[in-house]
What does this fold into?
Amino acid sequence: MKRKFIIGPPGTGKTTRLVEIYYSRIQKYTIEKIQVISHTNVAADEIRAKILDEKEARRYEKKYNVVVWDKITIKNKKLFERTVSTIHRYCKNNLFNAQVFDEATYMELCRRKVMFQRYYNGPKDLKSLNKKHPFFRFLGFAKDNGFTLAEYWNSPRLTNEDRADYKYTLSQLEELNIYYQDFKKDIKLNGKSSYLKDFIDMIEHFYEAPKDPDLDVLIVDEAQDSSVPQRKALDKMEKKAQEVYWAGDPDQAIFAFAGADPDYFSRISINPDEELEQGHRCPKRINQYCKSIIEPIWKHYGYRRTWIPTNEEGEIYRLENLNQCPQLSLLLDRLKNTDESFIFTYRGGNGPRDTILAFFKRHGIRYGRYGTDIVFVKNWEISCHRNFPHWIGGKPLHLTEIKDFWKKGGSKLIAHGKGEFDFKGYVKRDYTVDEFIQDGLIKPEAKQYTKYEDIKLKEAGATQLETFKRTEYINQIIKDNVDLKKDLRIFYENIHSIKGTEFDNVILDESLPRWEDRFTRIRLRYVACSRAKKTLWLLRRTTERIL
It folds into this structure.
């Protein structure tokens, strides 16, 4: 078995090519023994959706005169959830009777060892302990890099700021880890199993198991992002495989901090088995700019990628700040008066993010954090501010929208004892405020208030200034007559989290909040800029370190 490397610059259709390989391999092997691995749920879902897309399958059938769609549709869809997955999902499916560390066992751990409760911010943290709790985050990064806790703590990859961000001292982290490892092995402590495995353990448990998977074909997406334990797991998965395909781009290897090895992948893919050349995303100017960014890495490793842009010219603008500069009015016009998509991205840290969020709020821009449901103000609250003056003035309003007033309506509006009213028996139709007053749900004196902010409850912990700015933001959205029914198209997120995406406009904050080596900075900038389909905006708001 020899790995086949498929390399492609940004937007050259690596996912489409992997699906074509998948379709070709099901002509020879059974679907059950073909495994596709990606590194995020979003990427795995995208590949799976493309495999199960009838148009894609029919197109391949017509081109190569083979059967694809019938082979796929006779299989249960759950099979594809198992055979097209993240590496963690694959390893979890092969735990060999091990029990999984879950929310209940975490709470039991906290009960027995109070130090684990420190920095625990409530039930929302349970869904992603390895990202939000400093101990689990530190343990995860140490294992991803193949280090002990002490080795990782003392490694040059960590700055003093990084160490401080982990909250605990090294001795505390080691103390917690000793107890934690014992806890997972002792059923008397965890109350569940003597074979308990957490998210971090799953891959290690898999590659240490004596049995090798019985696969015919292994297809690995974004192979350059594999951590140390993930590479060991992939080695194990390959042992019996007849064919192995690794797809990716070493120039986009930006996860060295999480155990990826950009240098290794760059060297083994200097002469790939297949190289994708035609870009489907970046226009000419942005393509050329991205090539100039990555040129030092190409020169260092002795290769040069062919990367053909789209036919559009594209645009690149520079912004001195997000307060007042020559191109800012153009950006604001496009933000407010087009249907184009935008991503404001940055290396990390609170400074760049807070600058971006302040800009959104100042100009009444409806936005969200990419890949999440996090927004500053939800649509229903904006609708309350928009609808309340009309309703209180006598205009009928639909029950669905009236019910939203209850979510933050205070005692100035809602009658005593009706704050938890369930509206059972009310037909879904328009109602006037007088009807609700007659039914004893709304106080008669509420009609003196003409603005929703006059009667709604204040945000928990918010200062008077914060409340004022929130209201000002909502009123600006209402003034601009923003259509709340349209999907969000303006987002913010750090560079690592937007890899694999594309937007009409990319606004890159070039500031660098922490030291990074030269090649890491180059790859981060390359990844960020190559998300742009139409326009790239470069924000250099500092004279300090830049990407």
Notes: The chain has 25 helices and 16 strands.
